[in-house]
């Protein structure tokens, strides 16, 4: 069922330095709201910098959807501290607004005005806004205000050099890319463990259900919030999370070059559905960047995806093709409402262990039949993950195991990996997290989703959200007095505005010409 990796773990124990130098990065989204809980109607605050050019504070889909981006680092405490400083700095500049602490936005009605993010008059800025107009026309604006946390992760190059078999037959980027694809396939097979443990969106606003057919019978509380008794992360479901059908795109993550070609094909192939939307409105304004299956690479919404830092003027596809996979991006994390910054250290420690495990386990190539089975497992966990004695498919559609049976095997390995990592840092953090989080499978009430559902059904999402938002805002204002990065962020605010002006001055092509060149 699950490969015995005791020999591989023994190799790690004999070579513990192979896991020194793990780099991570965090991207956290959060909606700016008014003090009454409604969406902020204000534009992106000038005092926190230009959303187009700021290195660490930008916007996602809408003007009020903030995105905080940390630098990459091999120090978890530094990452969390920097992320806290970004929140504190921002809170100090938006004193009459709060940051919404949940992934799922709250709508009292479907007439909520959502202003698409604006990035100035440059061609680059217009392109970013037009891409978001396309998202609205393709999928709707409510869905695009759903927030999440993205976790970027890379293993040391010397880990891959010493780990990968037949490395002499491949060039440097090829064997590293093959290793990351192995990890990605395993994440699809077993990554449902993340929404089970950390899913925090078991309830949803009725507005999201109006245009969606579902076989699940939702319950309703007095606040008109719909929920399922065993659900974990409705954000990741067909109801909440707009997921491009990677089966239709024939992206199986089996071969690096095939992945690149499949992604290029999606970027270059017109979609009948999106052709029907049209490219421009009657006034000549763009309704989307193009009518292809994907406007740009970022539109490939998956639970995990391969990434590479791009050079100036380079697309992600070009960067991957030229230099291979550099890191992976986990996109299946809900905002953690129990943390002011949306993610906790324990989550990072567990993710580290699990992703290393995914790299070690051999991963057979996946065909469409396999992927359909994988999709069914994720669906089970998303909608009914905490159901007593819940089972999922293993290997084939006729063999099932309970979550407890599978988690016992996985956590036995994770604990062994924890010994290696704790040995490197001379503490017991990873082992402690293993012991604590393993209990979530034996007692589902400990999961984030169960705790969320408990207070959401009793107190309501608006009241709970506002209470947490106020509490966290006060914490951020207090912490900003000790913000070690305050002067750096003030300087970055000024630099970002100057950079935007410079970009706008240097444009010489019309927007139409600029789009054609992209």
UniProtKB/TrEMBL annotation:
Record bears the keyword Ligase: yes
Gene Ontology biological process terms from the UniProt entry: glutathione biosynthetic process
Cross-referenced InterPro entries: Gln_synth/guanido_kin_cat_dom, Glu_cys_ligase, Glut_cys_ligase
Chain ranges passing through the membrane: none
Protein name as catalogued: Glutamate--cysteine ligase
HAMAP family: Glu_cys_ligase
Protein's UniProt keywords contain ATP-binding: yes
Gene designation per UniProt: gshA
EC assignment: 6.3.2.2
Swiss-Prot/TrEMBL keywords: ATP-binding, Glutathione biosynthesis, Ligase, Nucleotide-binding
Domain spans labelled Glutamate--cysteine ligase: 11-381
GO molecular function: ATP binding; glutamate-cysteine ligase activity; metal ion binding
Pathway terms, separated by semicolons: Sulfur metabolism; glutathione biosynthesis; glutathione from L-cysteine and L-glutamate: step 1/2
Family to which the UniProt record says this protein belongs: Belongs to the glutamate--cysteine ligase type 1 family. Type 1 subfamily.
Reactions mediated catalytically: L-cysteine + L-glutamate + ATP = gamma-L-glutamyl-L-cysteine + ADP + phosphate + H(+)
This protein's GO CC annotations: cytosol
Taxonomic classification: Bacteria, Pseudomonadati, Pseudomonadota, Gammaproteobacteria, Enterobacterales
UniProt-listed Gene3D superfamilies: 3.30.590.20
